[in-house]
Structure formats: structure tokens, C-alpha cells
Predict the 3D structure of the following.
Amino acid sequence: MKKIIFLLIIAYSIHSAFGQQTFTKQDFLQKSKNKNTLGWCLVTSGFIAGFIGAVINVKDEVKTIISIPGNILTGSPVVEEDNYSTELIIGGGIAIISSIPLFIASTKNRKKAMSMSFKNQMIPQLQNSGFVYRPVPFINLKIDL
């Protein structure tokens, strides 16, 4: 029973070792480009939303300074419209702040792509009850400490 469990564990570990996802240099560069584009979209939309909110807010402030507090003829008060200028400014700020992690991840992916290289390494393999050295492609990933 112990041998069967041991063999199942080894078979599973071999299966998971060969079933790993491999990323190439192009994959990391594409991920970097996508995250960078999304980061710039968030920054741009955040600035646009904040600018529109600020313009609406300034326009309303000028309108309240110039306007008469109520209609003189009918005696009814001026009804203020809800224009969501504060929400636009806050939403724009959140969009700008949320773009920062995307730029950081983009830089990390670009650095990973630049540190990767491919090379063939000679590995001994069993063939006809003897060892034969065959070239096997490897991904070399340089990690700076």
C-alpha cells in the first residue's frame, strides 16, 4: 500500500511538472504592452472625468454667485439640479490612482522579458540501457537580487 501511494505521488508530481505553463519572451512583452495601454486609458479617462467635474462645479458656483436667490415675480426659490460634479472628480481621482499598479506590473513584465534567454543544454537521457546526451531547450531566467 505504501508503494502504491508513493508511486501515485511521483506520477502526479511528474505530470504536474510537465503540465506547467510556459511563458516566452513575447508573452511577457505582450502582457507588458496590454497593462501599459490599460494604465494610460485609466489615467486619461481619470483626467477627463476630473476636468469635466471641475468645470461643472465652477460653472455652478459662478451661476449661484450671479443669480438672484429666487424668482422675484412668483416668489418661488431657485431649484438646484443634482449634477454629480463631485462624483466625477472623485471617480477621476480613483481612476488615476488605480492606474499606478498597472504601470508597476507593466514594468515588471518588461524586465522579466528582457532577462529571459533560450539555450540548449545537453542532458543525459536513457536509451537502450545506456545514457545518451541530447540537447534540450531551456529558458534561462536571470533574477537580480
